[in-house]
Write a structure and sequence with these properties.
alpha+beta; Protein Transport Mog1p, Chain A; 3-stranded mixed sheet; 10 strands; 20% helix
Length: 184
């Protein structure tokens, strides 16, 4: 009886080691860009360019991380010079995201008295699925995007964990939030 208990206990311990490694989720905040969010693993920052017909070419800051093959990305597009077109710019971003894709979900979003749009699309040629949420805040377009590869877990609770964690008031951020640095 004791040997059986010992073998069962050893099996449980070994099974714990066999579980896939998961990146730790942390809360992050950007005071200069006025948002906070929860993301897994190591977050990298880069600069880029957003291009669209109405918006033209605008500078971006992109924060990204991944866990279990799922990519999490926040793109902040500086549109302060043309922010008087906020509704049109938000609509253009949403249109560009869903253009040519099968729409699974398209709803209005809301976070901290900010209204936006939340969409889930199936990528062409069985290329996986993406969920994105868009907000216009203080002259900046904020896109939160989750990319799930083909065969990935489309029902992962981490999709909502990331998207629904966005906050625009610093006092709404987690007290232990890590400051996101601006890329060079």
């Amino acid at each position: 009886m004791r040997l059986t208990s010992w073998v069962i206990m050893a099996g449980i311990v070994l099974a714990g080691f066999a579980q896939p490694a998961h990146a730790a989720w942390e809360y992050y905040i950007s005071h200069p860009l006025n948002f906070s969010v929860a993301m897994p693993g190591e977050v990298t920052a880069s600069r880029g360019t957003y291009e669209a017909i109405v918006a033209g070419a605008q500078g971006t800051i992109v924060y990204s991380s991944s866990e279990d093959g799922i990519q999490y990305r926040i793109t902040v597009v500086d549109m302060r010079e043309i922010q008087n077109k906020a509704a049109t710019l938000l609509g253009e971003a949403v249109y560009n995201f869903q253009d040519g894709k099968n729409i699974v979900m398209d709803i209005y979003a809301r976070a901290d008295r900010r209204f936006g749009r939340k969409l889930t699309v199936e990528m062409p040629n069985d290329g996986g699925r993406e969920t994105a949420e868009y907000y216009f805040n203080n002259g900046r377009l904020l896109e939160l995007r989750v990319t799930i590869p083909p065969g990935g877990d489309y029902g992962s609770p981490n999709i909502a964990r990331f998207i629904d964690s966005v906050a625009f008031f610093p006092d709404m951020a987690n007290q232990d939030s890590i400051e996101l640095t601006l890329p060079e």
